[in-house]
Amino acid sequence: MFELVSGANLANRAASYGPTGILLASPPQIDDDTTLAAQMMTAATGHGLVEPTDLADFAIDVFECDALLDRVPRPMSRGERQLCGLLIAFARPFDALFAADPTGGLDARRRQAVSELLHDLAKDRLIVSTTPI
After folding, report:
1. CA distances (Å), 42 to each of 32, 46, 50, in order?
2. What angle do CA 15, 18, 23 make, to 5 degrees?
3. What is the CATH topology of the domain spanning 8-130?
4. pLDDT value at residue 28
């Protein structure tokens, strides 16, 4: 599962990264008994949005995971849960993303899609991604 950095020190440093002035705090909590769509909406509204960001909608299409939206994570595979975490994170605004093994558990096609999307996001946001060797 990927991680999003938390901590007061990092939050203070994040203020210089742009208009949202936040780093994503800790890994998005995945509620095993709430649908992915509901969790994305909660993440968005918790940050003052009326719906998830356009990035989240785009990622759903790119990752080809529409079928996950109405499911609860409990019975999902590691890769599906990984996608849930990414989509919940993308549902809210951010300027910096620190992801530990964001492609863990994904099939080759989705690994490529996640890698390409993170690369594209790095053009206007701070993206730090680690992968175990």
Report:
1. 14, 6, 10
2. 55
3. Rossmann fold (3.40.50)
4. 67
